[in-house]
Amino acid sequence: MTQPNIVLPGPVQTALDLLETAGFEAFVVGGCTRDALLGDAPHDWDITTSALPEETLSVFSDYRTIETGLQHGTVAVLLDDMLLEITTYRVDGTYEDSRHPDAVTFTRSIDEDLARRDFTMNAIAYSPTRGYEDLYGGASDIEAHLIRCVGDPETRFTEDALRILRALRFSSVLGFSIEEHTAAAIHALKDRILYVAWERISAELLQLLCGRDVYRVLQDYRDVFAVILPELEPCFDFEQHNPWHIYDVYTHIAHSVAHIAPEPALRLAMLLHDIGKPETFFADEKGIGHFYGHPKRSARMAKDIVHRLKLSSAMQEEVCTLVEFHDYPVEATETVLLRRLHKFGPETFRHLLLVKRADCLAQNPDKTAEELDKLSTIEHMLDVLLKEEPVFRISDLAVGGGDLIALGMEPGPQIGALLEDVLDRVMAGKLPNDRDAILAEITNKGMTS
Predict the structure, then answer these.
(1) How far apart are CA 267 and CA 212, in angstroms?
(2) 150 touches 30 (CB < 8 A)
(3) Which one of 103, 219, 419, 423 is most buried, counting C-beta atoms within 10 A?
(4) Is the pLDDT of residue 100 over 60?
(5) Cα–Cα distance, 31 to 161 (Å, whole number)
């Protein structure tokens, strides 16, 4: 593979020049070199150097520096509004917790520093003056779209179990395959993932789910996913015995994940939307499989999972709502659309329609054409309806609680209940959203008593 010169941002070039002028080696390293070789614009620029932390601080004494990672050799430097992390070459000690080195030793050797890194594609260093340091064939592996551990895979994953999920995440996001010995070590050491904090597991999982090759990774490494989400395992090879489904439950789930927009909440909702099916399976007298109540069962299981993953409260609620109501009926009528907008709100309702579409696309294509056409009609109707600023919230009504109190109602929950009734009648077209008309209806029917 021809290794091109990497065009560095001005502040990065300045940092390398200052370190080199002071007599030290300095390279950009890791993800930025990988991304540059892939033709992508790097988001972060990490610099590694032979300078010890105190020497780095001296080199950048005229700039603002932050010493938060000094024990690991990292100094953050602010150059022209760009915050750069500059880390001394180091050798990691033992990893007693399967996650963090117990100690690090600084070294003057770039070769020793690269030897501690996770994958060959992340162990490439580059300097405009010194060229590439690529001891493990990372550039060739990038060209071959291959993820390979630096050195012995079992050693790398035993040191830091998060690397297992990082490998799967890179495979999904980049569309790279995983080298056979690296893949074998992932399967063999999968249980070590539970040494990793749930916040880190969650972050890797959500990025992985949004990858372009998520279907393949979910299928090829389903045993790994069962470690962090054991609720998935009963879905493996669970035949549905239903003419609407040509896949087992887990394969249907994996297809549905790939069929929805790559947004974390949507992808996670699809991963969890049918996990309650094995527990609710029922075969009728003709042998046709049914899963009565599986959305609610799946939602209860999803609630435990999103809590375990330590997601934000808003994301937990969104995912569980999409799972619970993924089978909720929606008809192509204005009244039904307004009621669904009232129940879910515009954003969640749009997401629910996307969930329904992904669910259909992962079923029997001979059965779902009509449902997919119906969803397209509903989505178009929703777009038109929302442009008209329709009434679907109590706050949209031409009357409020103060108006009802003025009519003689006592403050309390009955006011909210009455407004809900009025809103339902307005959405159904039985009552105009006009203040005088609504108050007259309430008075004439004695609804305030």
Answers:
(1) 12
(2) no
(3) 423
(4) yes
(5) 19
Question: CA 111 to CA 134: how far, in whole Å?
Answer: 9
Per the listing, tokens 């929606």 go with 330
According to the model, what pLDDT value does residue 93 have?
72
Helical segments of 79-197, H only: 110-115, 138-143, 153-159, 162-174, 180-188
At 438, which amino acid appears? I
Backbone angles phi, psi at 77, to 5 degrees: -125, 135
Per the CB < 8 A criterion, the answer to whether 42 and 110 are in contact is no
Tokens of 92: 């990691």
Give CA torsion, residues 46, 50, 53, 55, to 10 deg.
-120
Q: What is d(CA 393, CA 40) in angstroms, rounded to the nearest whole number? A: 45
Query: pLDDT of 121-139, one tens digit each?
Result: 999 999 999 999 999 999 9
Instruction: Choose among 261, 30, 233, 145: nearest CA to 6.
Output: 30
Torsions phi, psi for 427 (to 5 deg): -65, -30
Return the structure tokens found at 285.
Answer: 């007298």
One-letter amino acid for residue 432 of the chain: P
Whole-structure pTM value: 0.92
Reported as type and span, the H/E element at residue 444 is helix 435-444
Measure CA of the first residue to CA of the last residue in the chain; give whole Å: 82
Residue of higher predicted confidence among 441 and 187? 187
Q: Render 403-422 in DSSP notation, one character per residue.
A: HHHHTTPPSSHHHHHHHHHH
Q: How far apart are CA 424 and CA 155, in angstroms?
A: 63
What count of Cα atoms within 13 Å lies in the side-chain half-sphere of residue 176? 29
175: left (phi over 0), alpha (psi -120 to 50) or beta: left
Place of tokens 């074998």: 184
Per the CB < 8 A criterion, the answer to whether 34 and 142 are in contact is yes
Total Cβ atoms within 10 A of residue 103? 12
C-alpha to C-alpha distance for 9 and 13, rounded to whole angstroms = 6
Predicted confidence (pLDDT) per residue in 171-214, tens digit: 999 999 999 999 999 999 999 999 999 999 999 999 999 999 99
Distance from C-alpha of 160 to C-alpha of 201, rounded to nearest angstrom: 12
CA–CA separation, 185 vs 187, rounded Å? 5
- Nearest-angstrom CA–CA distance, 174 and 216: 12
CA 376 to chain centre: 26
pLDDT of residue 101: 67
Other beta carbons within 10 angstroms of residue 146's beta carbon come to 20
H helical segments located in 39-137 = 53-59, 110-115
